[in-house]
Design a protein that fits this description.
This protein has 182 residues and is mainly α. 79% of the residues lie in helices and 0% in strands.
Length: 182
Amino acid sequence: RGEIILATLALMDALRDVGAAQKRWGQRFDAEQGAWPAELWSWVANFWGVLAALLNDFEKAASYFTQSYECALETGQVRRAIGSALRVGATFAKLNDFHGALDWMQRGLALARQSGWSGSTGYALTQTSDILRRLDQLEQANLYLQEALSCLQPISASRQYAVALQQLAELELERGEFTLAL
């Protein structure tokens, strides 16, 4: 548990200052999976994936996020698996591989739906709808966003709810519904 906390701190540091985090934590957390048990590697790989993404090395980021996802599934860390699947999808989107992104988003969404956690489900629906919008599947994207807003309604003061509203505005712009977007 202590190592997981340290991996989480490393991730937070990476979000603040990628270079400093790499110096501080790079030696602490070996980038090779063999050095860590699967339950911890899901967290360490997530750190390395975020680090790679912030350094615009999206292929490496996707590899680490995929490893995080697989280890999280293997060890029963459902919330970590959901987040990792969505990160793989977001990374594929950065590479303009929207079909690959959709596949990963749908994996994360399926896990979120199975979990019954409305916050996770709402977030996964929001992320998936963005990819659907980019694939010009606007009606399906709208259905996902409406469901996301319903799931997230109990936490309507949250960042997740605001992101869903932003995605809805983006979708309405795509559909030419400028007044609704506003």
